[in-house]
Design brief:
Number of helices: 10
Largest sheet: 8 strands, mixed
Number of strands: 12
Bound molecules: iron/sulfur cluster
Order of helices and strands: EEEHEEEHHHHHEHEHEEHHEE
Structural class: alpha/beta
Radius of gyration: 21 Å
Helix content: 25-40%
Shape: globular
Length: about 325
Amino acid sequence: MLRLRELKCHYHTPRGVVQAVDGVSISIQPNEVLGIAGESGCGKSTLLKVLYDYLQPPLRIVSGSYEADFPDGDGKVKTIGPGEIREHWWEFISYIPQGSMSVLNPVIRIENQFFDAVPKRHPLKAKGKEAIRERVAAYLKELELPIEVLKSYPHQLSGGMKQRVLVALGTFLHPQIVLADEPTTALDVVVQKGILLMLIELQQQMENTLVVVSHDMGVHYQISDRLAIMYAGKLVEYGPTDAIFNNPLHPYTQMLIQSLPRVGDRSQRVGISGRPPNLIDPPAGCRFAARCPKAMEHCAHQEPELIQMGPDHFVSCHLYGEVAS
Ligand code: SF4
């Protein structure tokens, strides 16, 4: 449904070129939940922006390709890419942004934010505001959200309700692909659970593709079918979520999983010391080498390739595969 091949997307800033997404290749399938995990600053949110075709300076695609299968009516599918995908925002692909507190327009009532989200080309737009209001009201009822929300301004809603409204906005036109950027960050655990349930129930009803970016491995464990781990702009491991949690291969993935709290386990959780490298001048070789407890001499100067280790399970690490001389 979405294919990325050796995609490199950089921010061209006055301080230098930030290599935020650097040579990422992955296929995203219909009707799957793909999780993208990693620390802050590893390129997850940039990757999501690129998937959404939200390419604004200083962010640019510098090489590689990105394409999507777009249903062109009568059962036909056409391949579209950056610059074209944005023409189908909301109905084909939608984006649930990070930070529910600040992304809704504070001076516009929620019902008008839904009205603005319906593109001019959509048949519902021609039916007018009242028809859209009725459709939104029915949708909110389906999602068990109070109808009073429609007349509210964002500041009158709690953080959890704002996030639910964003999920409703992003799914209202039943897009085939929903991209969610840290959808549960800054919410308490009870509200987080409600949002995750809402996202996953909607994905199951619509049988669409959900791509969720989160630094929280617990979120991915609960909802993702497949998981992609990013580190310093690179995809270092991806595969079925069960395979990743039962048999994490990359040392970074292993450390992310080890840092998760477990019921009944009182041992102290160990964090990952150090910080990701500066992506303006990333190190040669494996970008995780400075923090990796299993680093070998050649790791610092030879970049590992992504290799297949199991059914749809890939890793990029010199512990696996052969080292070129
Ligand atoms: Fe660690 Fe080397 Fe693997 Fe990088 S390539 S994760 S430094 S063992």
